[in-house]
Amino acid sequence: MDFVLGDAMTVDLISIYKEILSAQGIRFQLLQKSGNDLEKTDYGFRKRLFKDYDYNDYFGMLLRNSKEIKLYFYRDDFLLNYCFFEFPEELKEQYEAEYALIGPVIFGLVQESDISRIMKEHNLPVALTKDFSEFYNRVPTLPTHDFWVSLITPLIKTLFGNYNDYRFIDLYSVMNSTEQDAAIDLNAFDNSTSFEAIADRYDAEDRVLDAVAMGNVNDAIAYYRLFRQFNIAPRTPNEVRNHKNWMIILNTKLRVAVRRAKVHPYYIDELSRSFAISIENTNNTIQLQNLATTMLRKYAMLVSNHSTRDYSALIAKCTDQINLRYQEKLSLETLADFCNVTPGYLSAQFRKETGMTLTDYIHSVRIRRATLLLNSTDNTIQEIAEQCGFTDSNYFTRVFKKQKGISPVEYRKKIGNKK
Predict the structure, then answer these.
(1) Domains in the chain: how many in total?
(2) Which of the chain's ends, N or C, has fewer CB atoms near its CB within 10 Å?
(3) What is the pTM of this model?
């Protein structure tokens, strides 16, 4: 092993692993000998299905198998996959836990035929099919069992060194025979599983949209990863088409969220249209997944750069005009005339609400656009100055250096574009 068990690096690794798995929606439970909080193992689903279901029996089954080997991966009777292990003695006190249970996860979508078979084997009525479907929709999905093992292996090596005596155990038949005769409490089972799963999915989606509407890129991406843990039933047999359909819906919802943040439709329509084209031109699910992250980032940045949510109607109208017409000649007088107020009133109100003068705001908009052009084009400094509303390239250079700390030429060299 690279370091001694119990040292601070081990503690950090456990914490990091819990965070990594949590970001994927995968539970990492630390358990006492009593098997505390085992209802979380399947989101309390079995307890809703079977009257007086005792999770201690489930835990007892895990312990019986752990007598033979220190750790194992297993699949239970509901096709849920886990990793279970007993902590090394020297770590039990440190973590105040005897065992760890990681999961559940599934590999790909659970098919209707699998659900029907499971329900039949447990003597469950067909009326509960939707509840089963929504239950599986909330379980994190991984591509393969090998991927699952590789995800956990670094943690196992840290805790157990070069110990390789772990294996996969299929507990399907064992658990199935144990639960076959369990009493079903249909009166108590009120479809709450499907209600809760669907509600949780919508809540997760709302958090994504709220983060975008606040212009918070990091939160939007983090919440989106949590949201994508929920599986959405496919509408067609074509996986790429299903993903495209979802992306079209996401694009629409992001557009609405950004509009709620008082971003001018001009910017929203331009971005939305470009993403609509990208979605249809992309024919790979991985590329579509990456495109979703790009959409979240750009829509959130749109809010950061163009939201007028905190401004009065007057200043919102003024800032929209500046953002839309930054290439043209703008002055306090022309903007005041456009807003139907006196120049003095507009100047005072603008500074009060934005914290900067009208001229400084115009410069900030133009320099932001100039920075983009310096990054993405080979246009000359003179051309960029004119494209951003500066008639004098020397004046443009002075304003740019005041805001960025370096000249446009130095900035271009710094980013590696020396043309």
Answers:
(1) 3
(2) C
(3) 0.54
